[in-house]
Structure of Mitochondrial S-adenosylmethionine carrier protein:
Amino acid sequence: MAPVTHMLAASLGEVVACLIRVPAEVVKQRTQASPGSTTYHMLLTTLRQEGIRGLYRGYSSTVLREIPFSLVQFPLWEYLKTLWTRRQGHTLSSWQSAVCGAVAGAAAAFVTTPLDVAKTRIMLAKPGTTTASGNIPLVLCEVGGVEGFPACLLVPSPE
């Protein structure tokens, strides 16, 4: 039952955290993609052009990326800590727990990178485009069709 508890707690935490994280991420990514622009200017531009909804563009795709990440990372982290503890016969030190967390985080990132690619593309898309609509499968098919499948595994750098 512990893995299910960890999964539910992590998922709920991500849904709530995204209420704050997504607007910050939208402004950050758009500022990075617009050289010479300031964060404040990008915030105002987004609000002027798209309203408050513009700050939450990509909310669903972010949540749909964060939940699987958490569903992999936290139970795997707990499992690795338990395994290591049993092997050495005593509680882990903080550095050992950190190693377990790093391995679990790397595994979760590997699994969810295509969702991160879709989230980034959705947040940076021009308003009114099909990409901006937030349809994750459509965005991934477009990326894979135009740029090839490996592009789904690489988060684009702002250009």
Remarks:
- The chain has six helices and no strands.
